Amino acid sequence: MKQKTLILLCDNYPLSAGEFFIDDEMRVIAPQFEKVILYTASAKSEENLNRFIPDNAEVVQFSKHKLETSKIKSFFRIFKPMFLRELAFAVRKLPVKYWVSAFKIMYVDIHRATNLKNELLQLCDKSQLNLSDCVFYSYWHDYKALALAILRNNFGCTCVARAHGWDNFANRHNPPYLPFKKYTIRNLSQTFTISQKGKDEFAKYASRNLKNKVIVSRLGKFNERTPLFAKQNNSILICSCSNLIPLKQIDQIIEVISKLEISNLHWVHFGDGPLREELERVAKKMLPNVEYEFRGIVPNSEILDFYASQYVDLFINLSSSEGIPVSIMEALSAGIPVMATNVGGTAEAVNSQNGFLIPINFNISDVALTITNYFNLEPAQQIQYRQNAYRFWKDNFEAGKNYDDFAELLNSL
Length: 413
Known about the structure:
Helix content: 25-40%
Strand order of the largest sheet: 3-2-1-4-5-6-7
Distance between the termini: 10 Å
Number of strands: 13
Order of helices and strands: EHEEHHHEHEHEHEEHEHEHEHEEHHH
Largest sheet: 7 strands, parallel
CATH architecture of the largest domain: 3-Layer(aba) Sandwich
């Protein structure tokens, strides 16, 4: 594989905040290639993010805005068989009220994907790369994966994509539709879902002879820090980590914490987003007796350092939709029990031995009672939860093992 060039298509890595979990993956798979091109849509470079960039990597930016230009040129693509088949699929699967929206989504994605495919061909020509010597890898199963599916269909090169949550589950969207999934799955060399639940979802698009085109390849987290199992003080520390956006339901976390009748309670949230000011106002109103912090965007290494130096009693994630959150993997790697909603593939990470899986339509008071009951357990019982959390990460989400396995899969294509 050393003679190959890996071309990774992503949105933020390694220039701006977002996709922090790619860092660990690149530490493992980049050395398997002679050269890596990080083809990113990021429009700006942010400092002090401590991103890992492989020594053999070159960063190349592409413009999302440029992909949107000259849409009129895509008009005749709507008469191509792939577009007509997708349109027929959407009409069969969606209520009439969604047909126009679905058509627009299809049109935009085929336009973006075709333009991106052409950009990739220009990149390879400029870099004097033979397509047969490249592995094209989209980190998301969106228009970038569609571009690679078209590329492989045209030229037969090796093209793969991952699927996570929003790019895997149609019900996270309005309308509940993800375009060109069957075409993308069929024409990529391989699709890798990060959860079994995600693979099962894609089975809806794949006929029987296409099911081997989708493989589960889990993400992972490096953490060589020693977890804290024994508690040394009487304070209670709850942590959460996510973007501050509606589907993460941080307002529900605030409401749950407001119901906890616990002294010396401290809540820390890592992450930022458009709802920050609103959530800070809500927290100020609802948590007058709780110490809390919105830490903003913090590098993963600093989050793990925090978990290693501060005894975090519980990690909480109340998202309305997920793939399998890397933030949960981080908490488990530090021996922190996790409470999370049973959405997406979260049940593949959280169970009754390492935390608490709650229904998506949870009751705030019931969740608060579950947390209170856990905090009232004997220390030995809490330590057992923590040890189970750490072991589960070690067995299922340790980055070295998972990404070594992924590198082998890439080598086999």
